[in-house]
Design goal:
The protein is an alpha/beta fold. The protein has two domains: about 140 residues, no CATH class; about 200 residues, Spore Coat Polysaccharide Biosynthesis Protein SpsA, Chain A (Alpha-Beta Complex), CATH 3.90.550. The protein is about 50% helix and about 15% strand. The chain has 14 helices and 13 strands. A seven-stranded mixed sheet has the order 3-2-1-4-8-6-9, with helices on both faces. Helix 6 packs parallel to helix 7, helix 6 crosses helix 13 and helix 12 packs antiparallel against helix 13. The longest helix has about 35 residues. It is globular. The structure holds the ligand CCCCCCCC/C=C\CCCCCCCC(=O)N[C@@H](CO)[C@H](O)/C=C/CCCCCCCCCCCCC and uridine-5'-diphosphate-xylopyranose (UDX). One of its GO terms (cellular component) is Golgi membrane. It is an enzyme of class 2 (transferase). It is found in: Golgi apparatus membrane.
Amino acid sequence: MSIGQIFAFSIAVAICGGWIFVWIIHIAALLYGCRKLHKAPPTISPEDLQGVSIIKPLTGVDPNLFYNLETFFNLNFPAYEILFSVHDEHDPAIMVVQKLIEKYPKVDAKLFIGFDFFAGVKYIGPNGKVNNMMKPFEAAKYEWIVISDSGIKAEKDSLIDMASFMKPDVGLVLQMPYACTRKGFAGVYEKVYFGTMAARNCLSANSVGINCSTGMSCMVRKTVIEQSGGLASFSKYLAEDFFICEATKKLGYKVTLSNKLAMQNSGNYSLDNFHKRLIRWGQLRFAMLPTLIILEPLGECMFMGVLSSWAVEYLFGISSMAFFLMHVLTWFLLDYFLLRITENGPLPFSKSEFLVAWLLRECASFYLSMRCHGTSLVVWRHRKYRLRWGGTIEEI
Ligand SMILES: CCCCCCCC/C=C\CCCCCCCC(=O)N[C@@H](CO)[C@H](O)/C=C/CCCCCCCCCCCCC
Ligand SMILES: O=c1ccn([C@@H]2O[C@H](COP(=O)(O)OP(=O)(O)O[C@H]3OC[C@@H](O)[C@H](O)[C@H]3O)[C@@H](O)[C@H]2O)c(=O)[nH]1
């Protein structure tokens, strides 16, 4: 065997190993999803339930904001407060919050405006969301803090579900992201992304304790944040959620997934906006965890399909075209089952819509990955950042 042949043989064997590994990820996600999602939470006695401070950082309004925020005024939970905050005193979200506070006088809700934190400090670091959460975090009267993004719609029992997982050894409870049923193809596309690729990685990673956090809806102990240097110490990162998760583990606490999902229901959604968001998330993942630059494409159906079809033809003489088609079909079917598990029932759109959205996402993933590498500039809600290796940012 020549050196070239040994090299090609080793690569083909490594690709087959990777190919087997991606199916393990599929199976782990399906099993963990079946066991976990939409199940009744562990029982917790009323005495063990603590109060919860829900922090809602807001920036601007969208057509669903009033409705989404209103769901937090109707939660099934004995003691909680809602702490809204906005950067800017002219933010139109202020009117929406004030209307809700007037409509629900019995709910303990407050609104914080502006960044005059303490002793004249107005800026604690570049991450806009962390800045926006500073005042409510300082004011929070309970030990259990829920961080909940503006686009989240709460189910009546979602707080009790998260709280039931807050055992003494748990520091952070995450809700896996998903999306509410919304009109149009962009709504279908978001469900397909969060119910297939994101769910697969999030569920399999959490089943073996790998950090795959998304901070759009989570419950964390106030003391965990305080003992890790305070909320301000996370403002140097764009992905504060990932680093809060790391800090929780470092303190010896467990991180766990809640049974209910983070239901995103923003009224501003489009394919273009969603792709921009995926590029931003990709940029920050690659900056924080550079090994994902190689691993992520390998975890995608089309890329792994092309590589593995070449490898099996090289090693075993199996037709690469037939192998590729079988690979894509099996992946598609497993994704369909995972999406149904995530949705907890039949899909709210047709199978042909699923097929189109799935194909578009699978084919776009390589292009989106490439777009992440094109620049270190990140735009998030009208703020511009330069992203550095390690995940720290500098505001421009
Ligand atoms: C040989 C093939 C190996 C394939 C490995 C697959 C690699 C994982 C690929 C993609 C990860 C996608 C994660 C999707 C959701 C992430 C959303 C997101 O970016 N959120 C950010 C903003 O909220 C957040 O700050 C980022 C968090 C970091 C995510 C890190 C993900 C690592 C997942 C690893 C999964 C491997 C599971 C193995 C289990 C057996
Ligand atoms: O400058 C900002 C940006 C964002 N935010 C708030 O942060 C929340 C999330 O913002 P978006 O919906 O734009 O962003 P994403 O859904 O992409 O955020 C997600 O990805 C990046 C992570 O750091 C976040 O924790 C996660 O929520 C919203 O509640 C928004 O109002 C601010 O308060 N200020």
